């Protein structure tokens, strides 16, 4: 969507600046409000086209305190890291506006042009699709994405290179491409044409026009930030509640047999986790007192505490609420532990947040697909994802609650909130049924474990884990 | 302070667990309260002594949801990074308790034992001193630090190595030292004896005693968390207010001369920043409307926005308040930009926080030394620190405030808060005087700039910057 804008007269530039500042403050003031938004501006283009100058000019027209600029050298895309991972920590919070020079498209181009064996067409296109989908997920979660390509002809590029002085040359060399190489230039243009179809493309021959065109595009965008969607388009089909959730198997395991099995399996699990050569993410969901803590204890039994991290997920904090709901999990997965165990997880979006109304209908109904994509990206980048739903009967839960209340060192585990959740038992069953139906994928399956008998439950969990780790 | 504890009977273990859980919840409940605390447990020792097992046992006795464990492979200490930098992001927030296996002492030992040219005694001791001082700063800022050394004799270590199976060996190999090498063992013991004087040392021959001794030490500590100090020990001596702050020089610079100088200097500054081979941190403080924004604009004039980051510091958010006040600056300095410009800074501690009473007397009076140490650590690790106080007269400020109110695109810059701050003009002058006197160090000096004349101010700032960057 190339646009040839008419030049603005100097006396109108002050007007443009004022409008930008007003739009910026309007954005800033959405913070913590119902229609809160943040804006992410992805900036890419030909070297010396003037991305830097245009952003600098924008920064002079707006209130610079509320326009963050971020630039990193490109990360080469590899098979171990989701392309979004280097960036998620810096996703702007509600009310913020941010320009990103180094972004996933720079990475894609750098990887395509630098590696000895470049991406084939299919791989390249797959990445482009994934990036667009990721941006759509950001948009749905209130991070608006603007993409701008600064273009420059081969001839003008060469002319500008001729005119550069030494200190500038040093700086531009940092970007690592040989801009004197016509073949590389053509190749870059060919590649970027595969993804810039829906970008705003600025012809950078004229510097004033360039800066104004960029600023006006941002302004137009800020003035028309999309509303948060409120209508669910597709018809909602409630999943039937599986019998295994309502009446979990009660079969008890003999204590001696349990002990023998446990010893063998904990050892096997530790070996498997250490030797599989992938990271592992283990998710526990289930009703309160279903035995998540006890199960986690057994998984890590033969591991050293330095080998794993346990994340106990409760209500998000304010600064976490100012970002997409997956944000606080993205950042946890940046930690160095190769085994991450989640005692509750991102599934809170379709469980407690759905039930308590913290997420709107649109939001939680969309979350199943978002979560599936998130997990797929993990699995595709050397991470094994295993998910457990611990199923307990309503009677057994009551007994455990009461036992907790009279056991001194378990008393802390039971609060009024647990009793309150219990009163919404059926809501949780419905939500769990929907979740199991919609997020039980081939690459990240759910294991529903009957936990009325703790011994049997733990053995089942360890066996399921071994199965998912591809160990018999 | 080695302690030979008496063994606890099994029926008392439940009691120990209960006491630990109670202490843990008491800590947790200090969150956001007046006496809020967090606890950081540094764990080091001989391999196979059983640090991991002791922490695992502790985790079984406490509520594991509120005990985080963190372990990283050692970072070799180098001349580019303050030793605390890899850790600050993870400093526990108020109410949290955290065990750190990989910590600055592991780094010190690893660096001493691994590098081809090990630290000489003086360097080693200097690091130890710096680490202790840093810990004292953490403690003063409500992060309690517990240090535990798990010790094991050479003979027992060899016996345990003999008994290990393959999978465990793989794991322990990760730590990189050769535990079969008697000389290395002796060397390690010699080195650690130089810093473990004030540590809790656990003799790990007996495993049960080890775990109980560790847990009891933590419990004792949790039960006696020090109160936040409220008394200032030394007498406070108010600094005289320098004339330059009260009546800044008014000398005006001719516009043409300004333009010529500016062009030359902005270019020179950009060159110097790029070529000096160090990171640069530039701090701006001063009364409102003194021209911080305009000065920053000129510093970055010839830079590309990708080369620098501007941080506009306003009131800290809730999650930032839950950590030491320097925390939010530590994390900003982790960003990749090699030039960081702070529009207001950590000096807020001794300016606005002092004046508005957000920091107690003890806190802001202690902050001068803390800040000096922080900046010293930066300067010692390849960062140039330049600090500007922009001095404006009270009359000139009033004129600028009024001009802002009638200029559409500057209207946003003036708020009721600015007028409120103005009413505390003298308080700010006193605070600035104290700050200048106490933090004007040889390695990170203050430049007081008269800003009644904007042109002259900007030229002075650029020249001062060049001076500090050691360019004539």
TrEMBL record, chains A, B:
Q: Name one GO molecular function term.
A: transferase activity
Keyword ATP-binding set for record: no
Which Pfam family is one of this chain's hits? PPK2
What InterPro entries is this protein classified in?
A: P-loop_NTPase, PPK2-related
Instruction: Say if the entry is tagged with keyword Transferase.
Output: yes
User: Could you tell me which residue ranges the Polyphosphate kinase-2-related domain spans?
Assistant: 14-223, 253-470
Task: Specify the superkingdom.
Answer: Bacteria
Q: SUPFAM superfamilies recorded for this chain?
A: P-loop containing nucleoside triphosphate hydrolases
Which controlled-vocabulary keywords does the entry list?
A: Transferase
State what protein this is by name. Answer: Phosphate--AMP phosphotransferase
Q: Which organism is it from?
A: Acinetobacter lanii
């Amino acid at each position: 969507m190339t646009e040839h804008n008419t030049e603005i007269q100097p006396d109108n530039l002050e007007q443009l600046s004022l409008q930008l500042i007003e739009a910026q403050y309007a954005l800033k003031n959405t913070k913590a409000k119902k229609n809160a938004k943040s804006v992410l501006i992805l900036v890419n283009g030909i070297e010396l086209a003037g991305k830097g100058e245009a952003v600098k000019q924008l920064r002079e027209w707006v209130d610079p305190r509320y326009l963050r600029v971020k630039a990193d050298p490109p990360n080469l895309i590899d098979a171990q890291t989701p392309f979004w991972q280097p960036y998620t920590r810096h996703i702007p919070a509600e009310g913020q506006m941010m320009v990103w020079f180094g972004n996933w498209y720079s990475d894609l181009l750098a990887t395509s042009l630098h590696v000895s064996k470049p991406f084939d067409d299919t791989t390249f296109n797959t990445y482009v699709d994934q990036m667009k989908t990721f941006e759509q997920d950001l948009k749905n979660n209130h991070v608006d994405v603007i993409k701008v390509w600064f273009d420059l002809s081969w001839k003008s590029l060469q002319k500008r290179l001729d005119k550069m002085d030494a200190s500038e040359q040093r700086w531009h060399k940092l970007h690592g491409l040989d801009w004197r190489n016509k073949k590389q230039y053509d190749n870059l243009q060919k590649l970027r044409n595969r993804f810039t179809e829906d970008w705003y493309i600025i012809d950078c021959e004229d510097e004033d026009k360039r800066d104004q065109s960029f600023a006006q595009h941002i302004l137009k965008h800020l003035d028309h930030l999309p509303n948060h969607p409120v209508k669910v388009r597709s018809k909602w089909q409630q999943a039937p509640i599986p019998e295994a959730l309502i009446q979990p198997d009660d079969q008890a395991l003999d204590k001696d047999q349990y002990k023998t099995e446990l010893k063998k399996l904990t050892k096997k699990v530790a070996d498997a986790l250490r030797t599989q050569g992938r990271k592992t993410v283990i998710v526990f969901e289930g009703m309160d007192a279903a035995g998540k803590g006890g199960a986690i204890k057994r998984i890590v039994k033969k591991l050293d505490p330095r080998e794993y991290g346990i994340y106990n997920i409760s209500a998000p904090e304010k600064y976490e609420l100012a970002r997409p709901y997956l944000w606080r999990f993205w950042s946890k997965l940046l930690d160095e532990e190769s085994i991450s165990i989640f005692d509750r997880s991102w599934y809170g979006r379709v469980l407690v947040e759905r039930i308590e109304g913290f997420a709107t209908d649109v939001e939680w109904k969309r979350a199943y697909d978002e979560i599936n994509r998130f997990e797929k990206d993990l699995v595709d980048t050397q991470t094994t994802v295993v998910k457990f739903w611990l199923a307990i009967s309503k009677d057994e839960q009551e007994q455990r609650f009461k036992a907790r209340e009279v056991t001194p060192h378990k008393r802390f585990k039971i609060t009024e909130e647990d009793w309150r959740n219990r009163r919404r038992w059926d809501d949780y069953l419905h939500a769990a049924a929907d979740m199991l139906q919609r997020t039980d994928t081939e690459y990240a399956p759910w294991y529903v474990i009957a936990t009325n008998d703790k011994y049997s439950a733990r053995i089942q969990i360890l066996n399921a884990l071994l199965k998912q780790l591809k160990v018999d």
